[in-house]
Amino acid sequence: MSENVLFALEAAANGLTVGIMYSLVALGFVLIFKASGIFNFAQGVLALFAALTLVGFQTGQVPFAHLINAIFGTNIHDFGFTMPAALAILLTVLVMILIAILVERLVLKHLVNQEPIILFMATIGLAYFLEGLGDIMWGAEVKRLDVGIPQGMSPWVDEVTYNLFGYGFYLDELSLWALGIAAVLVTALVVFSQYTKQGRALRAVADDHQAALSVGISLRFIWVLTWSIAGIVALVAGIMWGSKSGVQFSLSLIALKALPVLILGGFTSIPGAIVGGLLIGVGEKLFDFLMQPVIGGATENWFAYMLALVFLLFRPQGLFGERIIERV
Amino acid sequence: MLDQSSEGYVTADGRQIGPVVLELKNITLRFGGVEAIKNISFDIRTGEIRAIIGPNGAGKSSMMNVISGFYVPQEGEIIYKGYKRAKMPPYQVARTGIARTFQNIALFEGMSVLDNIMTGRMNLMKSGFLKQALWWGPASREEDEHREKVEKVIDFLEIQHIRKTPVARLPYGLKKRVELARALAAEPQILLLDEPMAGMNVEEKEDMSRFILDVNDEFGTTIVLIEHDMGVVMDLSDRVVVMDYGKKIGDGTPDEVRGNQDVIDAYLGVSHDE
Amino acid sequence: MLYREAGDFKTSYASDNQTFPIRFDRTAYWVVIAVAFLLVPMVLTDYWANSIVIPFLIYVIAALGLNILIGYTGLLSLGTAAFMAVGAYSTFKLTTAFPEMPIYIVFVLSGLVTAAVGVLFGLPSLKIKGFYLAVATLAAQFFLIWLFTRYGWFFNYSSTGQISMPERTMFGVTITGASASSTAVYFTCLIFTVAMAWLARNMTRGTLGRTWMAIRDMDIAAEIIGVNPLIAKLSSFAVSSFFVGVAGALTFAVYLGAVEAGEAFGINKSFLVLFMVIIGGLGSILGSFLGAAFLVVLPVLLKLLLVDGLGWPSDLARHLEIMIIGALIIIVLIAEPHGMAALWRTMKEKLRLWPFPH
Lengths: 328, 274, 358
Hints:
By secondary structure, chain A is mainly alpha-helical. Helices cover 72% and strands 0% of the residues of chain A. In chain A, helix 12 (258-265) runs parallel beside helix 14 (300-314).
C-alpha cells in the first residue's frame, strides 16, 4: 500500500475521536428532539457545563468564588480537599438532573405550544445563560480534566497496524476508550427505552404527544427525564473532550458541529446520530488531509457545514430520516 | 336531464350557465401505493356552482388540490379555457385566475385582516422592487388603488369593523369570511371553496351561503365547493359530483344525484365487498 | 389632547396607510430626527460616540437586515457576521482597487456584493426551513471567514492578515482613517441608518413585505394563493444581506478602521445581532432600534456599574453580561415573543384609551 494511502487512513482513524464527540452531542440533541420536538441548541454548552462542574468538584473548588470575592472582598478559592473521580461524577450527574428540572420548571413549561423556531431561539438563550453561569461558578480559565482514562499512543494499534502495513498508526488510546464508552452508553439507552416502563413512555411520547397524554403519561416528567439523560450524555461528552484538550469554551463550538451531524443522520435517529458523527469526524480529517495541498488547511472549520448544505439540497431528510409529505 | 350542449344550460332558477371552463380528464393521483383519486373525469362550466361531495376520505380535498395545482396527478389531463394545462407550480395556477380557500383555515396569522386580503391582490400589482423600496409615486398610488378594490370586498362581506384587527384574534367564523375575502380580492374566474361551512352554526352557515350565492350572482364567478352539509349542498349547487373511495360514483343535478343508487349506498354505508 | 385618534380623521387611503397614524407619534418622530441631527452632534464626546452611539447606529442597520429575514420572512440565519464580513472586505477591495470611487458608492456596492453572496447561501431555503436552514447559514459563517483569513488576495497580502481602511472623504469631509472626527463618523452612520430604516419601512409596508410575511406565516398557503416562493425567499435574502453588508462595511470603514475577519465577525457577533432582533421585536422596524440600543448599552452599563463602580474584575462583568443576555432571551420569548416593540405597542394601545381601561 502506498504511503499516502496509509497517512490518509491514519488521519481518518484520528478523526474517530472527534467523531465520537460529535456523535455524543448529536445523541443528546436527538433524545430531546424525539421527546419534545425541541431542537436543543444548548446541548454543547451542557457538555461544557458538566465538565466544568466535574472538575470543580474533583478539585474542591468553591462555586462562585470569583463572585463572592468580588462582592465581599474575600480571597477564597477552594475547600482544600479533592474528591475521588467516581464521587465527583455522581455529584455532577445530580447537578445535571437538577438543571433538567429547572429547565422544565422555568423554561419549557412556559413555552408549550410555541412554534419550533421560538423554542430553538429559547435554547440559544439557555446556551448563553449556562455558559455565563458556568464561567461565573467555576471560572473561565482552561482546566485539566482527568478521571483516569488512559491517554497517549495506543501501543496495541501501533503494533497491529505495523504488522499489517509495515507502518504503525498513531492513535490516541483515549479514542478507543471513547469508542467503547459510547457503545456502552448507546446500548444502555436502547435497553432503557426498550425494556423499562419509563422507556416505553418515552417512546410513546416521541411517537405521538397527544396520544401519549391521553393514556396518562406525564409530559412534564418525560421532559425532565429526557433532559436528565441528555445531561448525562453531555457529561460523558464533556469528560472525553475535557480529557483530550482540557475544559474550555471551544467545547461549545465543537458542539455546533453536531448540527450538521444531525442533518446527515436525521433528527430522529439514534443510529443516525452515531453514524453521522463518525462520518463527519472522519470525513473532515480526511478532506483536510487530501485538500491541504490544494486549497490550504483548517478546512475542518467549515467542511461539516458545507457537507450538510450539500445534503440539504439533495437529501433533506438525512440518511436515516423519514420523508415528510406536506399537506394543506 | 339537463341540456349538456357546449353552449351551456339554464338553471332552475333561471341563471344562464356558460360553456365548459375547466375539464378534468381521467385524473389519477397516487401517494406511494395509495390511489387517492382513481380515473376521475368531470367538467366545470362558466358561472356554475359545482359541488363535490362524498364521505370522509373520499378524495375530495385531493381533487381540490389537483385543481389548484398543489398536487400533480400521475395520470390524466386538465383542460382549462380550452387548452391543456401544462405542469406548473401552484402559484402560477393562481395567476391563471383560480383562487381558493382551505379546509383548515390558512390565513396569515401574523398580519391584519386588511393585509391578508391585500395579499390576494398580489398578482394584480405591478410596482417593481425599487419603486416599492423608495415608496415612489407609482408604488404608493398603486397601493391606494388596490386598497380601494379591497375595501369593496370588505364591504361586500361585511367585515369593515375588523379591517385592522390581527387575524389571530378573530373568532373562527370571521376567519372563514376573511379567507373568502382574500380569495375574492384576487378577482378569480374560478373560486374553490374547501368546506366553507365546516364548524359553523346555523346562522353563520346561512350568512356564508348567502355570500356564496351573491359572489356567483354579482361577479359571475364560477364556484367549486366541497361541503358536508347535504342540505346546503343541495340548495346551493347546480351540479354535484359524488366521490367515494377515490372514485366518481355520481354526477348530475342535485335531484339526479339524490336518486342515484350508488350514492345512496355510499351514504348509507353499504358494505363494499358485496 | 395628548394621545388620541379622535378628531384626526383620515380622508384618503394614503393617510390611513401612513407610518404614524396618530399625530402625537408623527410629532415625536420629527422631534427624534431633529435631536439626532442637531442636538446630539453638539454634545457628542469621543467616548460616547465610540462606545455607544456609533455602534448603535451600525447595529441598527444589521438588525434591520436580519429582522427582514427572520422577523418578516421567517427564515432563521446564524451567519449574519459572515455577511457583515463580506461587506467589510468588499469595501476594502473596492476602495483599494478604485481609490477615486466615492466612498458612499463603495458602501452601496459592498451591500450589493453581500446581497449576491446572501442569495447564493439563501438558495437552500427553497427546499428547507427552520433550523435546517440555520445550519446552512452556519456553513456561510464558517466558510466565508475561513476564505477571508486564508486567501491573501482578500486582505491584499498584508503581513498581519488584517484589512485597514485608508483615509476617504465624503463631500469633502474625512470620514475614515485616523483623522476622521467622531462627528463626521456620526453623521455618516446617522445618514445611512435613517435612509436604511426608511427603505426597510417602505419595503415591508407594501406588496413585497406582504409576500415575505405570507411566506413566514404559512408558506404552502402563500404559494397556493400566488406567491412565488423562489422570488419571495431570495428577495428577502438579498435585501437582508444588503443591509447586513452595509452594516459590515460601516463597521470596518468608519468604526473600527482595521479588522481581522475571525475576530471582528465571528459567530458570537451573529448571535449578538440575532439577540437584538429577538429582544427588540421580531418583525418590527422599531424593534430593531430598541434591540440594538439595549444590547449596545447593556455591556457599557454593566462595566460602568460593576467594574468602574464596584471594582469587580472585568471578565466577571463580561460573564454576568452573557448570563443576563441569555436569561433575557428566554424571558422575552416567554413573556412577549414579539419583544420590546410589542410591549411598546401594548402601552400605546392603553394610552389611546387612557384613563379608561377598555
